[in-house]
Amino acid sequence: MKVKRKLMRRLTSAVAAALMTFAGLGAAGAAPAQAAAPTAEYVALGDSYASGVGAGSYDPASGDCKRSTKNYPHLWAAANPEYKLKDVTCSGAKIPDVRANQLSALKPTTNLVTLTVGGNDAQFAPVVEGCLTKDDSYCETGTIWASYYARNQMVNELSSLYKDIKARSPKALILVFGYPQAISTTGTCAPIELSARKRTAMNGFADALAEGTKKATVDASVYFVDMRKQFAGHGACGTAPWIHGVNLAESAATFHPNAAGQEQGYAAKFLATWG
Fold first, then answer.
1. What is the per-residue pLDDT across 50-74, written as a single tens digit (0 to 9) for each?
2. Are residues 24 and 66 in the same domain?
3. Does 74 participate in catalysis according to the annotation?
4. Three-state DSSP class for 154?
C-alpha cells in the first residue's frame, strides 16, 4: 500500500507539473493573438490619375500635387486598415519625376506599391488640347505621334522605372494601374463637341498607353491592372460618366476620373484585385 501511495503521489505531481506547463504554453500562445498585428506598408506613386485630380477633397498639405482623400490609394487603404498608406502621388508627374521625387518613399520593408504614370510623358495634355481646339486631322495626327511613343520609347522608360521600384522594395507587391478610354462614343460633349473621328483617335491613344504600359510590366515582371473594361460605358460625354468632360471650373480635371471614377472604377478594381 505504501508503494502504491508513493506511486500515486508521483503520478499526481507529474500530472500537476504537466498541467502547469500546458497552462504556461497556453498563456504564451495567447499573447500574440491579443497583440495588434504589425502594420504593413503601402506606398502610392504616380500622376494626376493616381493623386485623384477631378475627385475633389484635396489635401491642402499636398499643394499643387492635388492629392485627393478620395483617390484610389486612400479608398483602398481605408478598407484595409492593416496597411499604413504613404501617398506621394502628384499631379503632372512624369516618369523622371516619379524617380526623382517619389521613389525615396520606398523602403526594403514596403509591402505594397501602386503606380499610374506615363500619360504626361506621352503628352496627354497637349494632345487633349489639340483635339478640343483643332480640326479632326490635327487631332488624329497628334494622337498617332503620341501613340507611337507610348508603344515604343515609353515601354523602355517604364520598364526601367519598375525595376528601380523592385530594387528598392524587393518584397513588395507592385500593381501598375493603366488608363481607361476617356470618352464615350455616344453622347454630347458640351461645351465643346467632339466628332466621332476625334473620339476614335483619342480612345486609340488611350489604348496605346494601356498596351505600352502592359508591355513594360511584362518586361519588368510586375502586375498590370487594365482599367479599360472597368470604365466601359462610363466615359466622358456618356449618360453615366465616371470621367469629367470639359471642366470649365477645374480645367485640370478635364478627361480625368471624377469621384465615382476613383471609387467605382479604380478603387473597386483595386479591391477586387488585392484585398
1. 999 999 999 999 999 999 999 999 9
2. no
3. no
4. helix
